[in-house]
Amino acid sequence: MNRRRMAVLTAFAVSLVLCGCMNRVELKDRTIIRMIGVDTDEEGFVVTMLQFSPQAKPGEQNSSSAAVVIQTSGRSISEAVSKVSHYNGNEVFLGNSSFLVVGQEAAQEGLERTLNYFNANHEVSPELYVAMAQGRAESIIRAKSQEGSNPTQLKSLVEQGRRNGLLGRPTLRDVMNRLQSNRAEPYLPVLTTVELDGNEDVLKIVGMAVFRDGRLQDTLSIEQTRGVLWATNELNRALITVDFGEEDASRASVELKKSRSRVKVEIVRGYPVFHLSIRSQGSIREVSFDRGGGAQVDELTEIQNQVAETIRATVRQTIDRVFFEQKSDVFRYSEFLKKYAPTYWKEHEKDWDRLIEKSRVEIEVSCQIDHPGLENKHHQIVKMTRSA
Amino acid sequence: MLNEQIRVPKISRAQLVALLVLTRLFILLIFVPTTHESPGGTTSLVSILFGYLLTVPVLIPVFLLLRDYPGMDLYQVARQLSPRLGKLAAAGFYLVCLLAVIETAAQFSIFLTSAVYPRASSLWLVLIFCGAVLYLVFLGLEAVTRTAAILLVAVCASGVLLVLGLWKFWDVLNLYSPFYEGFSAVLYSTVLCVTQNLELVALVLLVSNLNTDQIRSTFWGYHNLSNLMIWLMAFAAVVILGNDGETRSFPVYTMFALSGSNVFYRFDYILIMLWVGTSMIRAAMYLLLASRMLNELTGRRFGWWIPALNGAIAAVAAVVVAGDIRQLRLLYLSLASGLPVYLLVVLLPTVLLAIRWKGKREPKEGQA
Amino acid sequence: MMKKLWQQLLDPHSEERTRQGGLFDASQPQGVGSRKEAQARLKRDLLENMVKIRSLAQNTADLQDRQIEVSGVRVSILMCEGMVNLSQFGESMVKPLSRLELKDADGEAVAEWVSRNTALSGDQKEFFTYDELFTFLMAGFVVLLIDGVDRGIACGMQGYSFRSVSEPSTEMNITGSREGFVEPIRINLTMIRRRIRSPSLRFELLSVGSKSRTDVCLVYLTDTADPKLVEAVKQKLARVSADLILSQGYLKPYLEGRPLSPFSTVGTTERPDTLCAKVNEGRIAILVDGTPFALIVPYLFSEHFQSMDDYSYRPYYGSFLRLLKYLSFLISVFLPGLYVAITIFNPEMLPDTLLYNIATSEQQTPFSMMTEALVIHLIYEIMREAGLRLPRPVGHAVSIIGALVIGDAAVTAGIIGSSMVMVVALTALSSFVVPSLYEPAAVLKFVFILIGGTWGLFGISVGMVLLLANLCALESFGIPITAPTSPCAAADFRDNFWRSSWEKLGKLRLRVQDLPGSRLKDERSAGGKKGEGRC
């Protein structure tokens, strides 16, 4: 029995000696990074990081924290990140970084070489938001917003943007998934700063960056972004304003709550035809009539048709620009081919660029307004579809 | 004191099923595309089903044999029918089980140092792991199976949480044709499903510890549950992770990390705990079986020194293997190649059946 | 005459008593008489007996003896001072004896009369050895030795002071009985008998402890408890080698099979209703004289989370409380270790805001997270222990100081972070939800702090699995203590993690020896049948 006790005690003592076997790092010895921006220069990468720096004093209940910007460079991102320890001797901790901003130039040189480091890092969450800066990522990180709230502001910007149909799912996992696929391409929201009052900067989403072969190909406007999201079934909510009535004198704002899109693939005369059907459901938020009075039933139908036409036109324009002109498959049509026509895809995968030129995208949009708003005395709910 | 030396531990059918299913799930957690050479993706969805069917005829000889020897395991039958063959079988079982322990410890270390603690010392991880496993062995088979049953319930519950947390990442576009990479890939993957199933070796050794004679229902319980869980996990990996699941190491770990983002921020800590438990139970089971076989080979003279010796061998070998991914791959392939299953679960019972048939004929000829 | 008797008996300094050969002879040598010597049989000669008794008792001050004549026969009355109910003694013994007039009586006639023709007390026994004499004397019996008779008569007239029946201090109840056991075993037996009015309820008295000869009573239902279990308990109690048995804790190690585990396989209870419920499930209760706690064997791990209150509430709330207890136990053991492990090794697992708050609060503290956790939990344990031992008025002051020391001063001084205070508070509160598991929880939390601080989440996981396996390896008299969770029986789950309604609880009669994995039944013959709901 005594021997057993000695053995147990010895085990405990040994365990204390083994404090170094797991490479423990106290929280106070870590440099907690909240946001990272990656740019490129002649030598390699320039990494700008927003560090969380608590200003706590003993006993303070509400301690403030300062945001400190650190910038390092290196031939690789690993090298640049490791140089952060030259500032304060602490170990860099990326586990709670909420945002990664890629500079425009870095995006042009190739997204994968920028993201590989983060994808392979066990600390980094797969749900890390990724965005591209209009210009250098440094400007986003250094934006003089309210003290310490840049990442928070950005995060809520992104989340609101997703809800309001300004951007899709710009997480590290989604981007890497597309980069690792055969031909599908990623997209990223584009950010910029807008100066207010000379002292404060506000972050703004200005559109979407589309890629081809992992390199930046084009930047889309907000409207065109919506077209992409409609086509890829990632649009949650959107507000569309249409003109209707005699000489388009009346105007209606329709809030689309749900949009669903489906793609069917057909091989016609040796080339793929993608049938994109979009169904939207919404309600009228605001109507202003030319004569100020009530509207007829047909006007509601006309509004629906106008909305459907607007959606169709937006999606058409976006597909023409992104898919046919830039040959960037953000719509994942290659994966649809792989799923629904695997044999065909296997044979023609290598001629994807040529396939794009010869393929067609047929768009069908339907819109249903199920709620006419508060002012409903002149409206009745009518279901109409109009094929585009 | 080693429990087995006091009396033969008895476990229920459900406990054995839980133990085997849990150890089988180990393969899910340590999946590394570069070392495991499994096609993965949608191919695995079909190959798991084919593997489920193919495993059944593989076990016909052993069922036919054990049917006539209730309460005995394959080694005991071999020893009874042919002492020399019994020794050989014990050596074979010992080697396979010990290799399984080494593989488990090495995989465990690689997972932790790849996905969780990149700068941790592999040596100490293996030593701590092997020490803990040795303690489990000393607690005995009953304790290990009871723990396994509880852990399996935890795994199932966490699987439900996983699914609930991942529903928004569901993308059916990731489900392409399972025959996309050709029939040969499906066939290869199917065969791998059978040959990777090292738990069949454990099953034929543990039937003597059952408190019932219903071996076939035990097998069906294990076979159905394990294949169902593996299939569901593979399906989730395909539809949720897509290409990421085929190229990223430890895709299940990634799924858990994603899953918590809905409610609890991250769930990967749950996976780490379950994974540690699963690994320990697997290693403990095989170490127990290896110790039993070595005990038989040495004539039961060394008592608790045997598990300690096996634990030491496993620890040293695991440290060496974990330090070199090529050696680990070699070890894995040697176990998954099918040699253990073919030799010990198919060939050995077939030979024993032949010996028994010959033995029954000879007295008849003598009488004639 | 009665008055004379009283005075003679009660006055320890009476010269007359001393002249008659009381036991207060200082010339007798001091020291302990051997038990072997006391095993000798009583003699017929009263004087010889008295001399022997005097020498064996070593002139102990509390032993009173008085010689009287009953119908011409000398009778010696012995008792221990303060242990006898004097009014009962006077009414039941003195009066009848003093009035007894037998013609031509000898010792045997008097003994016969006392034994057969009267009942001087409800509990009246004959004995033959000095050892038994002392046993009865020290149990509060009044002992009669009659000249010419080689046996004695012990009459139960206990009247010593004891604590009255009150609410149990360790098992509080909101609804239900407020009675708790008391120190005298006889009163505890009556409390049990009142609750189970069945002839199958059996009390089996044993004497344990070579010097204390403490009364230990086995309580079980003959139609429910397994006879092998009863026999096993008796065998274990027979192996008790201690001189003194002063509380139930002295017997626990003998009843537990595997001491190298933080969990006990023997339960304790202070409540008669709880004891009755356990006994009804085939368990055996062991009452120890002199302690208000009863031991219960076999004891399962899930019983720590059961209380009488669960059965007074409606099933949904009872189940909620049950689950809350499980959660509280897990928090009390693992929360500090997990907190240390995650903040040191895996801070990416914390939500952003929480991480920033913790980082801010820990920024100025001088110690590592593990050291902080160890120190603050140690301080808490010191204060808790101090609060238990101190008198109540001072105890309040200690708790106030404790709150100030930990809650405010330590944080203000920058010794610990405010987040650590939350962890300590939550851990402490959680540990009191399941009081019977306080001991293992208190020690294990330090173990897991050490493990978490050195090996991180990996170490915590290994520790958890080892602890679980250790628990699964424990058996209480052949029954795994993790039953019915593992090995599992679906039918027995009705009162495990949740509490089913009384309709379901009353349907199947649970007997502890029928639990899955029990060695008390033949598993092979009973297992494998369909329809039993065994998983």
Report on this structure.
The complex is a heterotrimer of chains A (388), B (368) and C (535). Helix content of chain A is 34%, strand content 33%. By secondary structure, chain A is an alpha/beta fold. The N and C termini of chain A lie far apart (87 Å). Chain B is mainly α. Chain B has helices at 3-6, 13-24, 26-29, 33-36, 41-58, 60-67, 74-81, 83-116, 122-139, 141-166, 183-195, 199-206, 215-241, 243-247, 251-259, 268-297, 305-322, 325-336, 339-367. In chain B, helix 5 (41-58) packs across helix 11 (183-195). With 535 residues, chain C is α+β, with helices and mostly antiparallel strands. Helices cover 46% and strands 12% of the residues of chain C. Chain C has helices spanning 2-10, 15-19, 35-38, 46-57, 86-99, 107-117, 130-138, 185-195, 227-238, 252-255, 272-279, 308-312, 315-345, 352-362, 369-389, 392-412, 418-431, 438-473, 502-507, 523-526, and strands at 63-70, 73-80, 124-127, 141-146, 152-156, 201-208, 214-221, 267-269, 284-288, 294-297, 475-476, 479-480. In chain C, the strands form three sheets. In chain C, strands 1-2-4-5-3 form a five-stranded antiparallel β-sheet, sandwiched between helices. A five-stranded antiparallel β-sheet of chain C has the order 6-7-9-10-8, sandwiched between helices. In chain C, strands 11-12 form a two-stranded antiparallel sheet. The termini of chain C are far apart. Chain A binds chain B through residues 18, 21-23, 122, 125-127, 173, 176-177, 180-181, 332, 335-336, 338-339, 342, 346, and chain B through 114-121, 124-125, 173, 175-177, 179-180, 241-244, 247, 254, 257-258, 261, 266.
- Spatial gap, N to C terminus of chain A: 87 Å
Radius of gyration of chain A: 26 Å
> Which percent bin holds the helix content of chain A?
25-40%
Provide the residue-averaged pLDDT of chain C.
83
What's the total helix number of chain A?
A: 13
How many domains of chain C, as an integer? 4
What's the count of strands of chain A?
13
Mean pLDDT of chain A: 81
